[in-house]
Amino acid sequence: MYYGAIEAGGTKFVCAVSRDGVKIEDRTSIPTTSPEETLKQVFDFFDPYDLKAIGIGSFGPIDVNRESDTYGYITSTPKPGWGYFDFLGTMKKTYNIPMSWTTDVNAAAYGEFRKGGAQNAGSCVYLTVGTGIGGGAVVDGKVLEGFGHPEMGHILVRQHPDDHYEGACPYHKNCLEGMASGPAIEKRYNKKAQDLASEEKIWEMEAYYLAQALVNYTLILRPETFILGGGVMKQSQLFPFIREQFSILLNDYVETPDLETSITAPGLEDNAAITGCLLLAKEAEK
Ligand code: ADP
Ligand code: ZN
Fold it and tell me: Is there a single domain that holds both residue 131 and residue 102?
């Protein structure tokens, strides 16, 4: 019998199966089109396998509140066709087995916590810096959810004194995502983030925003490890800048672990979320 995993992204879905819930034995990548078309391909992938549980880590916002009428739905996404789509319900109609349901970033945090860069830590925050910015956390061995799931990408940040960009977030303009996502960099400089690698000042400014976020998460949660992933974080020169700014902004107010090891790239590289989904499938079965 197999555990199934779905990392449901706005651009692509990654599906995987594993017998032990860790080692991926088969996987596929499906472009995210309409819900019907995309899920048909998901079912085609899983159908040959005898599944005992499925873990889903989805793009959001999603409803994770079990008391809610729309639990298991993707909610207010602008993505055509996906707004208020009953994702979990549609999965359950096809496979009547235990399923876990959380955000893609919570799944990534869980994967890193159990098998990746945070496996020796007691808690972690995973932040993706890509098309959007999103974060998930593992505290007390569990993904963190309250009335809803965290939206760590939309925290409010202080504008850098040299930054005159108004911000790209349709809700808040100059929130963290509005200032530091890949599209925010691209709109500010009229160039793709990946083509600005040699512009040191740009990455110092980017680090200024990301470090503010990590300071805020530190003050609220005191996580032991920060894992930073997503396309923008491929600019690995960001890490020393972020650590430096983080130290300046926190100003020794609280003790933190060694920043070299506690602010790092994903240990599982691009497999953090799919691994987390498999591990969460295993948890759902219990
Ligand atoms: P998504 O967020 O859509 O899942 P990514 O995490 O790859 O996908 O994020 C895409 C964003 O990351 C784009 O805005 C792109 O410009 C930026 N990006 C991708 N690769 C790099 C890179 N090597 N350096 C800097 N930015 C990058
Ligand atoms: Zn915002």
Answer: no
113 inside domain: no
Residues in contact with 74: Cβ distance below 8 Å, sequence separation at least 6, in sequence order: 58, 59, 60, 61, 62, 82, 83, 84, 85, 87
- Residues near 252 by Cβ (< 8 Å), separated by ≥ 6? none
Letter for the amino acid at 189? Answer: Y
Q: From the CB of 187, is ligand 1 less than 6 Å away?
A: no
Q: What is the pLDDT of residues 145-167, one digit of tens each?
A: 999 999 999 999 999 999 999 99
Question: Which residues, including other chains, have CB under 8 Å from residue 189's CB and lie 6 or more apart?
Answer: 196, 199, 202
Nearest CA to ligand 1 atom 20: 231
At residue 121, the 3 state secondary structure works out as: coil
Q: Which domain holds residue 75?
A: 2-106+270-284
Mean model confidence pLDDT for the chain: 97
Residue with tokens 């555990």, as numbered in its chain: 3
Check residue 286 and give its pLDDT. Answer: 84
**Residue 18 within a domain:** yes
- Ligand 1 in reach of 192 Cβ (< 6 A): yes
Q: Which ligand is nearest to the CA of 177?
A: 2
pLDDT digit string (tens) for 13-44? 999 999 999 999 999 999 999 999 999 999 99
Closest CA to 84 of 93, 94, 72, 92: 72
Q: What is the CATH number of the domain that holds 70?
A: 3.30.420.40
